[in-house]
Structure formats: C-alpha cells, structure tokens
Amino acid sequence: MTELSDGDNSNFKASTGATPEEVAGTFLGACAKEDWTEAAKYWWSDPNNNTSPSISQDFKQRYGGLKMISMGKPFKARIRIAKFLELQPQARSQFKGMPLNGDFEASGVFVPYEMRLKDGTIRKWQLAIRCDNPDHRWYFDGGL
Question: What is the pLDDT of residue 42?
C-alpha cells in the first residue's frame, strides 16, 4: 500500500476534476442522504447499453442512511495474484503463465472508511474507486 502523494492528488484533480477523497466523500454522502441519482453518477454501466446505471434495492436498503464515522487517506495497492484468483477464479486465464506468488498494481484507488449502517452495524474497510476509462470518470468499484 502506498498513500497518495500531493502530486497524485493534483494529477487526479487536473484530469478528473476531483481527488479520490472528494469522490469517496461525495459517493458515500449521497448514500447517506439516500440521493440515489447522485450516487448513480459513480455507478458503472456499460457504455454500449444506453440505459441509466441501476443501483439495486438491496444496496439501497443496506447503505441508504449510513452515517460516516471516519474516512482515511486514499492509497494505491498491489494485489497478490493468488489472493485475487481466490476471490475471482473466473479471471484465471488472465494470469496464465504468471507465478501465483506474483502481484500486480490495482487499477483503482482505495479510501479507508468507518461507517455505521441504519441497522447499527459498524463497517470498517476500504472503498474502491477507479477512473481508468477514456472519459476520466470515477466509478465505485467495491469495498462496501
């Protein structure tokens, strides 16, 4: 893990209009307010499919009305291939011939957080966001 530098944040701001910390705050804030139109701006959808991004009812019920406790500094990470394949076995063909003890740089940025859900559950993890697309748009990529 490598915390983002001021230069990294400046580059993100210049190319996308926002730093990862700002994006995470906006996305999680929209979930807290149950503003699903705003949250959907960070929800990936297939650009070839001309429909609006759709956030599932399960997601809305679980994360709507959350209360942020804290948010940490964004970081980049390297992921061990064996661990990735344990979680995503269908991706095995992408790593053919590579050593399982090898690693690769994650394509997104991770933002640590701690939140309280409506049911009282405390979640502490890292929100994954990414902007590795031709439009330089940020998308939620997991971690909730």
Answer: 94
